[in-house]
Structures are given as C-alpha cells and as structure tokens.
Design a protein that fits this description.
Number of domains: 1
CATH architecture: 7 Propeller
Helix content: under 10%
Oligomer: single chain
Number of strands: 29
CATH superfamily: YVTN repeat-like/Quinoprotein amine dehydrogenase
Number of helices: 1
Largest sheet: 5 strands, mixed
Radius of gyration: 19 Å
CATH topology: Methylamine Dehydrogenase, Chain H
Length: 370
C-alpha cells in the first residue's frame, strides 16, 4: 500500500509537468454532537453515525445504507473519490447529502441528533459524483467522469428536485480505472462566502480554479489557470480563498474578485506530500498531507498572508478528508479506515484524543461534524 501511495504521488508530479421527516420523540431536529462518516463501500455505500462527547471523543451509534454504491477512481489507493465534500450537511434544511459514485446518485437524509432517515435517492445528473455543496435551498453536485459536470438541485417542501442547471466542464480525462484517472478528475465544488459564486477545483484535468455564477449557473465559467493541481478550497474570516495545491505541496491564498477572477496573495509549503484536504477549526486551517500522513496547521492574516504552524501533526496512515466543530478536528485515515480525534489548542497545536475505526472505511471519503 505504501508503494502505491508513493507511485501515485510520483505520477501526479509527472502529470503536472505534462419531504421533511419528523424527529423521533424526545429528539430535537437537526444534527447535534454528532459526526457522520461515509465509507464509500463498493457493494453498498453507508453512513456511519457517531455521537460526539463534550470532550470530543466519538462513539459509534448506527450505520445507515445510502441506497447507492460507493466507487473507486483509478490511481486512488487511500482516497477512492479523490475529492473533498463527498458528504455535506445542509443545516437550514436539516438534510445530510451524500454522493454514491458507483451508482451515479445522491442520497438525502433527514437528521435528528445523531440519527438519520433516508428520504431520497436521486440521479446525480452525471457520471461518478464526488462532491456536493448546499446553500439557501440550492444544492450543486460535481460529477467526476466524462470530463466533469455540475448539476443543480433545489429543496422544496423538504425534498430535493433537479433544476435545469447543468454544465459540462470539458476537462481532460484518462481512461476509467487507469493509474492516472483520479488525478484528471475535478476535486471539489464549494460556494463562495456570499453565495454568489460556485468554485470548482479541477486538479490535472483542467489545472485551474473555475468560477461560476450561482442559481442560473453561468454558461461559461471564469477559468483561472493554476498549474499546481488545485484540489480543494476553503475561505478565511475575510473571505480569502485558500486552495490546497497537491502537485506543488503548497497552500495558496487568493482574493476572489467580483468578476470571478482570482488574485494570488500568498503561497506556503505544507512541508508534506500530497496536500489535498483543508478545513477551518477554531480560527486555524488544517491541511491533510496524504502521503506524509500528517496535518499542517496554518493561520491566515487579515490580508491573506499565510503562516504555517510547526511542527506538522502525525495522523493515522494516509490522512485524507477532514471535518471540524468548535475546537475539535477529525481527520480520516485512508489506509486503515480510521478517524483521528484532535482538540485544537489556543496556539493552534493539536492534542490527539483517540482514534475510531470506520466499518468498511478504508479509502472512503466524506465526513461531517456537528
């Protein structure tokens, strides 16, 4: 497995050069003190629900079938969808939304505390969905294969319906199952903080950060070249866009301009290999370095200048997807199928609380904390 991770990183470097449900009695609607983890199980995708204690530790409480299948891109030994946002929580609508890459569907759950109820299984509008984002009743799904595509949905009376919003991305591709396939698929779709734009990180397939107008999905995105393999995005307190750059092993900060263009503000090395996932926690930002099996912490100033916290924090093998709530950070380990529990200290350092094993979780992505 370690050899495959090293091969994947080397290949990547070469490629660069080239209806609402009622809450059960006694339970409040909405997620509370819960962490939901998707295992991306190929024979049947599942969501594993954990209760979260006041001290941040997790206890498994249930496993829920999504009604769809997980999937695995070629060249993805520890991260089968090679994406961020495979699972998202739409808090205003009290819905958890999961992608089912192997069956080209998405699943919609209602949430009551740490319990879920499956409401819908819908076609994703494309081939191999890997990332989903939600805001103001609108949902957009990023499909990875066939050059990538975006499909829009909208909530109405607690249920999700497909809209006319569809856009093909026309990214470069590699054959399904090939060692390079996952590097040529898009990695993340995310809303801008003001909700007016959708950002897509394209990885090697586009080597760009593409920006769409929302709700009507502008016909032609603003394509911002980034030859460093942009994988995922997050936003700091001033709305600067933070982008993990897997090929260059860096984190970059950009100003997202009103016209969809971006302006580079800063770029710093993560001091780890294959940095792909990023999440904010307690005023800090944490980047998971998959090949190095550690997490790099950063601060972002009011001007978007980045400072790396030293040293990086070791994780379980193959650190991938992350989630955070309050002062707690949760990091998935793709090799063994684990979730590491951390507490964020006042200086940004991480104190490990423990590790839980996710049933059938090796290689799976998608995690939400509440």
């Amino acid at each position: 497995m370690e050899r495959r991770i090293h091969i994947a990183a080397a290949v990547l470097a070469v490629a660069i050069a080239l209806g609402a449900a009622a809450a059960p009695p006694g339970m409040a609607a909405g997620a509370s003190h819960a962490v939901f983890v998707m295992n991306d199980r190929l024979e049947g995708n599942q969501i594993v629900a954990y209760s979260r204690s006041d001290t941040g530790t997790l206890t498994e409480v249930a496993v829920y079938d999504t009604g769809g299948k997980g999937g695995e891109l070629g060249g993805s030994p520890v991260d089968h969808t090679q994406s961020q946002g495979a699972l998202t929580y739409d808090r205003p609508d009290n819905r958890l939304i999961a992608v089912n890459p192997g069956s080209n569907t998405i699943s919609v759950f209602s949430v009551s505390g740490n319990q879920l109820k499956l409401l819908q299984v819908l076609g994703s509008g494309g081939n191999f969905p890997v990332s989903v984002t939600a805001r103001d009743g609108y949902v957009y799904v990023l499909n990875a294969r066939d050059g990538g595509s975006i499909q829009g949905f909208v909530f109405s009376k607690g249920l999700l319906y497909r809209t006319g919003g569809f856009r093909a991305l026309h990214l470069a591709t590699m054959p399904p199952g090939s060692e390079l396939e996952g590097f040529f698929t898009p990695g993340h779709i995310e809303y801008s903080p003001d909700g007016t734009k959708l950002i897509v990180a394209t990885k090697v397939g586009g080597q760009s950060i593409e920006v769409f107008g929302t709700h009507t999905l502008t016909a032609v995105p603003v394509v911002n070249p980034d030859p460093t393999v942009p994988f995922a995005v997050a936003f700091d307190q001033k709305g600067h866009m933070l982008v993990t750059e897997a090929g260059a092993a860096t984190l970059a900060s950009f100003r997202l301009n009103g016209n969809g263009t971006i302006t580079l503000l800063d770029r710093k090395p993560t001091e780890g290999l294959a940095p792909c996932w990023i999440v904010g926690a307690a005023g800090f930002f944490y980047v998971a370095n998959a090949e190095s099996s550690n997490v790099a912490g950063f601060t972002s100033s009011l001007e978007g200048q980045l400072t790396r916290l030293e040293p990086n924090t070791p994780t379980s093998p193959g650190s991938i997807d992350e989630a955070a709530v309050g002062s707690f950070l949760y990091v998935r380990g793709g090799v063994e199928g684990t979730v590491d529990e951390f507490e964020v200290q006042a200086n940004g350092s991480l104190t490990k609380l423990g590790t839980v094993l996710v049933p059938s979780g090796a290689g799976g992505e998608g995690i939400v904390a509440s």
